[in-house]
Structures are given as C-alpha cells and as structure tokens.
Amino acid sequence: MATAADAELVLKLYEMRREETLRRARRFLIFEFQPKTVEELRVVSRDIKAEHNAYWRQTLSFWEMAASLVLRGALDADLFLDTSPEGARVSFLHHFCYKWFRASGLGIPRRWSDQSG
Predict the structure, then answer these.
(1) Of 37, 40, 41, 46, which Cα lies nearest the Cα of 110?
(2) Per-residue model confidence (pLDDT) at position 116
(3) Domain boundaries, given as residue ranges, for the chain
(4) pLDDT at 75 over 70
(5) Which of 1, 11, 45, 75 is the Cys-Cys partner for 69 at CB 3.0 to 4.6 Å?
(6) What is the pTM of this model?
(7) How confident is the model at residue 117 (pLDDT cuts 50, 70, 90)?
(8) What's the N-to-C CA distance of the chain in angstroms?
(9) What average pLDDT is seen over the chain?
(10) What contacts 2, CB < 8 A, 6 or more positions away?
(11) Which residues have CB under 8 Å from 112's CB, separation 6+?
C-alpha cells in the first residue's frame, strides 16, 4: 500500500523528468531512436563520442535509479507503475537491446554482462 512518502517521491521523480536536458533525452530514446541495425544501435549506445550517446546514458540511468528505489523497497511498486509507464517502455528497450547485442556476436556491453537470458 502506497504511503504519503511514496507519493512525495513519485512527485520528485516527475519533477526530475521535467528538466529540459532529460526531457530531450527521453524524447529521443522513446520516440525518435528507431535503430534498424545492430550498428545503428551500437553507435548510440556504445560510442561515447556519438551525438546521442549522452541521451542514451542519461535516460537509462534515470530509469535505472527510479527502478532501484522500487526494487529496494523505498517506493511502492504499484504506485510507481501507475505513474511512470515510460519506465516500463525504457526497460523493454534495454532488454531488447541486450538481446540484440547478444545475438549479433558483437559482444555485450560490460555493464549488462551479468544479466541472464
């Protein structure tokens, strides 16, 4: 059951998402980034000199941080999912990218190497 503290934390996360750079990063990753090949994905996700790599890293790290609050019990999971459907979409994208790298033979980014299946 969500508490007033959970609601406050959700509102803080929402406020963070309104920051302009993060807003642009989220827009890019969710709506504009449509890789057709593993190489297109690799340029954005692994090349730190690529124009959109910072957007990739900023969006994923924001949602990883938010999810860790749920996983560690600091935020009610149901309330988080009710108020942050974008996080589930980013999680799906992350999982899809992991599978794509794995199948490509190009190697899995070190950060993801401890994930299963």
Answers:
(1) 46
(2) 44
(3) 4-106
(4) yes
(5) 75
(6) 0.75
(7) very low
(8) 32
(9) 82
(10) 76, 78, 79
(11) 98, 101
User: Sign of the C-alpha dihedral, residues 39, 48, 65, 18?
Assistant: negative
DSSP 8-state code for residue 105: T
Tokens of residue 55, six digits: 């957007």
Nearest partner of 41 among 60, 23, 62, 22, judged by Cα: 60
Give the contacts of 78 (CB within 8 A, at least 6 positions apart).
2
Tell me the two tokens of residue 66: 């938010």
Residues in the chain, total: 117
Return the SS3 of 114: coil
Neighbours of 97 (CB within 10 A): 21
Evaluate whether 91 touches 63 at the Cβ level (below 8 Å): yes
Long-range contacts of 73-82 (CB under 8 A, 24+ apart): 74/9, 75/6, 75/9, 75/10, 76/1, 76/2, 76/3, 76/6, 78/2, 79/2, 79/6, 79/7, 79/10, 80/10
